[in-house]
Amino acid sequence: MFSKSTAGLEGFEAAAMPHLTALYRTAKFLVRNPAEAEDLVQDVYLEALKSFHRFQPGTNCKAWLFSILFHRFHHLRRRMLKSSLEETLPDQDSMAAEPPAPQEIKDEEILAALDKVPLAFREVVVMADIEEFSYKEIAGALKLPLGTVMSRLSRGRKLLREELSEVAKSYGIGNRTQHAAEGEPA
Question: Which of 44, 85, 136, 146 is such that its CA lies 20 to 30 A from the CA of 70?
């Protein structure tokens, strides 16, 4: 099926396979379904293998793979929107809160807050703050101007902070700083 040599296949595996976990984690976050995330990552690796001859050795393979991931994700999303315009998403407001108040915000709550950030901003925040891509790598992966990446990252972080501040307030985190700023005793 493929006319890849064994050396080419080994080169692909050496360059691409170390990024499988990061790709799956991000895909799972984007599609919110483990099975669909596996399919998406499989599509990414299949497309990457087919076009590995265009990959420039010595460049950032992880960024290249994430570029493919986001391209495939947007294609999948457009296809899903076309086929199911009448479907509605489950109401996230109906989710029950956890009864005991923890001392710190949990990962699940951070992810839930990130989930409320619009997709265009969320993608950039995930790539910059979770996957630790540079602005230039994000711009290349998402095919956006560098200024747009910087703007979306700034706005996305601001939106995330706003969402997390509500969670923090519900636990009494940050109230001392707010009282101090207002000149009230804590």
Answer: 85
Which tokens go with 49?
């293998």
pLDDT in tens, 10-57: 889 999 999 999 999 999 988 889 999 999 999 999 999 999 988 888
Query: For residue 31, what are its two tokens?
Result: 């599609």
Sign of the CA dihedral running 177, 179, 181, 183 = negative
pLDDT 10s digits, 42-99? 999 999 999 998 888 888 999 999 999 988 988 888 777 776 654 444 454 544 444 4
In whole angstroms, what is the distance from residue 98 CA to residue 85 CA? 33
Q: Taking the model in full, what pTM does it have?
A: 0.57
Q: How far is CA 182 from CA 104, 161, 177, in A?
A: 24, 20, 9
- SS3 call for 58: coil
Tokens describing residue 103? 């001392």
Q: Which of 56, 51, 76, 67 is nearest to 19 (CA)?
A: 67
Domains of the chain: 1-85 (1.10.1740.10), 99-186 (1.10.10.10)
